[in-house]
């Protein structure tokens, strides 16, 4: 059973996912809402896995679970908006994480949404919103990394940010 022996060796070398998640729980992340639209459909997902890639051309990346069939719209639409959430957006973050079991329309009713250039829903009172066209999608095991070129931004006066750390919300 060489195959089994090989598999056991590989399993031993692979980081235990629970241990990895425990370590990651110490990592503070800005809570963000990523949104998209395609035809009459729209979707938003609460995420922390997003960051800036470059300022020229302005580029950001987001990581979305590809095991969730409802995320397919993000891989097809060619557009997304990344909305950085503030301390006052905790209910909205819960709504778009599925925690409160709301329908899509009910989730979007927890905030006020506009559009900028691409047509992706932009949260009107986001700390900052980045309207993007998808330039590349890279599959990375359970998640797809979506790179977007920023075509419009919207931001207002500085307000406290909503963070996620130690498996709970915090504000900064
Ligand atoms: C604080 C926080 C951060 C999250 N970060 C991500 C993320 O970076 N990528 C991701 O795919 N899902 C992330 N999720 C999970 C999604 O929000 C959740 O799976 C999804 O919204 C479920 O939606 P559904 O009920 O419509 O399937 C995060 C959830 C929370 C509460």
From TrEMBL:
<dbReference type="InterPro" id="IPR012349">
    <property type="entry name" value="Split_barrel_FMN-bd"/>
</dbReference>
<dbReference type="GO" id="GO:0042602">
    <property type="term" value="F:riboflavin reductase (NADPH) activity"/>
</dbReference>
<dbReference type="InterPro" id="IPR002563">
    <property type="entry name" value="Flavin_Rdtase-like_dom"/>
</dbReference>
<dbReference type="Pfam" id="PF01613">
    <property type="entry name" value="Flavin_Reduct"/>
</dbReference>
<dbReference type="GO" id="GO:0006208">
    <property type="term" value="P:pyrimidine nucleobase catabolic process"/>
</dbReference>
<keyword id="KW-0560">Oxidoreductase</keyword>
<dbReference type="GO" id="GO:0010181">
    <property type="term" value="F:FMN binding"/>
</dbReference>
<protein>
    <submittedName>
        <fullName>Cob(II)yrinic acid a,c-diamide reductase</fullName>
        <ecNumber>1.16.8.1</ecNumber>
    </submittedName>
</protein>
<feature type="domain" description="Flavin reductase like">
    <location>
        <begin position="24"/>
        <end position="171"/>
    </location>
</feature>
<dbReference type="InterPro" id="IPR050268">
    <property type="entry name" value="NADH-dep_flavin_reductase"/>
</dbReference>
């Amino acid at each position: 059973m060489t195959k089994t022996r090989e598999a056991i060796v590989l399993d031993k070398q692979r980081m235990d996912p629970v241990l990895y998640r425990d370590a990651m729980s110490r990592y503070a992340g800005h809570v963000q809402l990523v949104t998209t639209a395609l035809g009459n459909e729209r979707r938003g997902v609460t995420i922390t896995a997003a960051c800036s890639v470059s300022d020229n051309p302005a580029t950001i990346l987001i990581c979305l679970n590809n095991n969730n069939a409802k995320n397919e719209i993000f891989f097809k639409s060619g557009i997304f908006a990344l909305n950085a959430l503030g301390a006052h957006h905790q209910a909205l973050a819960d709504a778009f994480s599925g925690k409160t079991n709301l329908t899509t329309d009910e989730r979007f009713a927890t905030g006020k949404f506009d559009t900028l250039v691409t047509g992706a829903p932009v949260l009107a009172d986001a700390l900052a919103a980045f309207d993007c066209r998808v330039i590349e999608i890279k599959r990375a095991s359970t998640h797809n990394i979506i790179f977007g070129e920023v075509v419009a931004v919207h931001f207002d006066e500085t307000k406290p940010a909503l963070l996620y750390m130690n498996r709970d919300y915090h504000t900064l």
